[in-house]
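Entry 14. Ran structure prediction on the chain below.
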Amino acid sequence: MYKSYIPYLQHILDECLYIRSVITDDMVIDQFLVDETLKRAVTRSLSTVNSQLSTLNCQLSTITYQLSTVNCQLNNVRAKVLGKLYGRTCKYAVHK
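Output, C-alpha cells:
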C-alpha cells in the first residue's frame, strides 16, 4: 500500500547535487545565460525535482487523509466503549 519514499528523495538529491555541481559560486549569471545546453540541463533538473516533490506531496496527502479516517473511526469505537462502560453517550463526527 505504501511506497518507499527513498527513491523519490534520492532522485531529488541527485538532481540537486547535479545543479550544484554545474552552477558554481564563482559563476557569473551571464555565463549561465549564454550556455544553452547548461540552461536546458538545469531547467530539466529543476523540472524533475518539482515533479518528484509533487508526487511525494500527493502520496503524503493521501496517507494523512487515511490516518485521519482511522483516527476518527477509533474515536467512534472509543465513544461506544465508554458509553457501554459508563452509560455516557459521546458523539463524534463520522468521517467518510
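The CA atoms of residues 8 and 56 lie 7 Å apart. Will compare against last week's run tomorrow.
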